[in-house]
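User: Could you check the structure of this?
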Amino acid sequence: MHKNIVVNAVNINTILFMCYFFPHCYLNDINSIVNHPHNLKDTKINTLFILNICMKTLVAFILLWIGAETDYNTLIPHPAIKMVSQSSLNQMHFGDVVPDSEIHALYDPSTDTIYLKDTFNMFNVFDKGVLMHELMHYVHDLNDAVGTKFDCIAQSEAEIYPLQKKYLLEVHGVNWEYDSMYLKVISSCN
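Assistant: Sure, the predicted structure tokens are below.
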């Protein structure tokens, strides 16, 4: 029995490692991991549990990266993360106004919750960039950056967009481009 526990702990650590560093070759079909005869066959760990571990690992990694790249304190509790529909995101962000653009995610400082679109895929590089962006809002909030470093939340976008670009390039090798004029407009407190 002790041998099975050790093997299962090793397999869980392998999954945690593979979740972040090799998702494209190991975790595209998470059910194959759970059902593989050499992995977790005799345990009660299910797909949702593994995905939860992977999300926590991803959040921890991104917070560590933010801490290494900025002067913000990132040794903070993880935010709540909820998946919601596009219509729910639109309602939270725009209210009753009909949106002219698509919201991918948002951070609610009143509840320390990041809302991600229910199509979010933690193994997709663009979606990781979206999560990093919202985690930056969370880090700003917990470090009281809005009100000290920035006059308003919108102004913080001027720091987040370039940092998101750097994250995608350095960590994932993706050169993400954004419109600098658009950033100038959305990062205004007016």
